[in-house]
Design a protein that fits this description.
The chain has about 180 residues and is an alpha/beta fold. Helices cover about 40% and strands about 20% of the residues.
């Protein structure tokens, strides 16, 4: 029985994300990577995107998996609202760009970009990587145009990521209405 409990606990630890995600107020690590929108590859630069407003950066484990598909559909449905608030949405996973070209059309519904983090450099910089794997945890950030983290949320369940990041962007927008 002891051995069974140790095995179960060990599996939970191995499958759990690393919960040391960057906290609000921290500097968001800058990055440039290959991305795709509507199946068309391009180079995404966080610094360039921040010039237009806040960025909703979300990490997800793998394209075409159940939870990641749900989350992509949810972000696709909310993208116009994010845009109306001046925010850019980008998803990041370890998938290669060919896989993401397909995912960006079918699951992201050509509404927002997804980026490849094949070497896990970005997810490591954001402390958004599952332990002992090359997969990202399901972690969402809202980054202010100043490059500071405004909001962070980590949960394997995809259900609250859009609502929570939308609330954070709304809060930022309310605080910056006069500066618009």
């Amino acid at each position: 029985m002891k051995r069974f409990l140790i095995s179960v606990c060990g599996c939970c630890v191995l499958a759990s994300p690393l919960y040391a995600a960057l906290k609000p107020g921290a500097d968001a690590p800058d990055f440039t990577t290959q991305a795709t929108l509507a199946g068309k590859p391009f180079t995404f630069s966080l610094a360039e995107a921040l010039k237009s407003g806040p960025v909703v950066l979300y990490f997800y484990p793998a394209a075409f998996t159940h939870g990641c598909t749900i989350e992509a559909h949810d972000f696709a449905e909310a993208t116009d609202k994010f845009k109306a608030l001046g925010a850019t949405v980008i998803g990041v996973s370890h998938d290669d760009i060919d896989t993401l070209n397909k995912f960006s059309v079918s699951e992201c519904r050509s509404k927002f970009a997804v980026a490849s983090d094949k070497d896990a450099r970005i997810s490591k910089a954001y402390d958004a990587q599952m332990m002992f794997t090359s997969y990202s945890s399901r972690t969402s950030y809202v980054i202010a145009p100043t490059g500071k983290i405004l909001y962070e949320y980590t949960a394997l369940d995809p259900d609250k990521h859009v609502d929570n990041t939308m609330a954070a962007v709304n809060k930022w927008r309310e605080a910056h209405k006069s500066g618009s």
